[in-house]
Specification:
Blueprint: E1 7-14, E2 18-25, E3 29-34, E4 37-42, E5 50-55, H1 72-90, E6 94-97, H2 107-116, E7 121-128, E8 139-144, H3 150-160, H4 174-181, H5 187-204, E9 209-215, E10 227-234, H6 238-244, H7 247-263, E11 272-279, E12 287-294
Parallel strand pairs: 5-6, 5-7, 7-10, 8-9
Antiparallel strand pairs: 1-2, 2-11, 3-4, 8-10, 11-12
Helix pairs in contact: 1-7, 5-7
Length: 311
């Protein structure tokens, strides 16, 4: 098979029940799989050296509390720790956790940690809740911008309610947050970052995808880097509260976020080898991602298998 463009080499590897098509890519590229089409494109070369992971709430601030007793703050911390380990082990990127135990940290202090350490990405991990309906469910990703829906505003108000522990009324800061929007240069990147996370959630998780949304989250204001807030599932939904208590589901959530970070087009590892399955006979409808190898320096090369597959 003759390679074209950015592809250095390509080969077909036949197996008993399927055929694997493997590419070696000349430069940093990525792909999107949309319906039956796989699109390769060039990645923006922007080195990511440090990511700040922020497990929401903590200490005196429990976050949402489920009917069966699950505290959001606890689920957030466990998911964040799994994500921390995945990124360190496979991408070799430095991680700073805003908290590593059950302590209270102000919303302002969280992004201050990211800014003072010149982080390249800020990821705030949360679980959702609804006071109106226990039937609401799913995974959604937010970036900082003016809320477009009443529901998005309600989510932001709930998360901003943590300000009361600092003696600040959440309603007093909305205008300040919107003023900050005019000063940030990372809205587009944050939006794109959120889309990669949400795309992987839609592919991998056994819960519904609620899409990418925007709202005025205080914890994201003033972040001098692409930043997102993830609402993993609904603590207020009995079915999802049960899932959130499960170790396997927490790991799935962390892995989904990890894959989104790995694929984000502003993250540029030194190079990667990409291969995906073509299952026969229906090749056109079952193109799958098989492995993504992140090649590091010669003295340390980890071949971490990303099992980001659409079944």
């Amino acid at each position: 098979m003759k390679p074209l463009g950015a592809i250095k080499s390509a080969k077909l590897i036949p197996y008993t029940t399927y055929t694997r098509l493997e590419f070696d890519v000349e430069d940093i590229n990525a792909f999107l799989e949309r319906e039956n089409e796989v699109v390769f494109y060039h990645k923006i070369s922007k080195k990511v050296n440090l990511i700040v992971i922020d497990p929401g709430h903590g200490g005196i601030d429990p976050g949402a509390v489920g009917k069966k007793g699950l505290y959001e703050k606890d689920a957030n911390l466990v998911i964040a720790k799994y994500l921390d380990r995945l990124i360190k082990d496979s991408l070799g990127i430095k991680i700073i956790m805003t908290r590593e135990k059950d302590i209270y940290l102000s919303l302002k202090a969280r992004t201050s940690i990211a800014n003072s350490n010149s982080a390249n990405l800020f990821v705030s991990i949360h679980c959702n809740a609804s006071a109106k309906s226990s039937k609401m469910k799913g995974f959604e990703t937010y970036f900082l911008s003016e809320a477009r829906t009443t529901e998005a505003r309600a989510v932001a108000m709930r998360e901003n309610a943590s300000l009361k522990f600092d003696g600040i009324e959440p309603t007093d800061v909305v205008s300040d947050i919107l003023i900050d929007l005019a000063q940030t240069a990372h809205l587009e990147e944050s939006n794109r970052f959120a889309e990669f996370i949400q795309d992987n959630a839609k592919r991998q998780l056994p819960i519904s995808s609620r899409g990418v949304k925007q709202a005025g989250f205080y914890v994201l204001r003033g972040a001098f880097m692409p930043s997102i807030l993830i609402e993993c599932a609904f603590v207020s939904n009995l079915e999802e509260e049960k899932l959130l208590k499960q170790k396997s589901f927490r790991k799935k959530l962390a892995y989904c976020i990890f894959c989104g970070i790995s694929f984000a087009d502003f993250i540029a590892p030194s190079g990667f080898n990409l291969s995906f399955f073509l299952y026969l006979p229906s090749i056109s409808t079952t193109t799958l991602l098989d492995y993504l190898y992140h090649h590091k320096s010669d003295h340390r090369r980890d071949n971490y298998i990303h099992d980001c597959q659409t079944r």
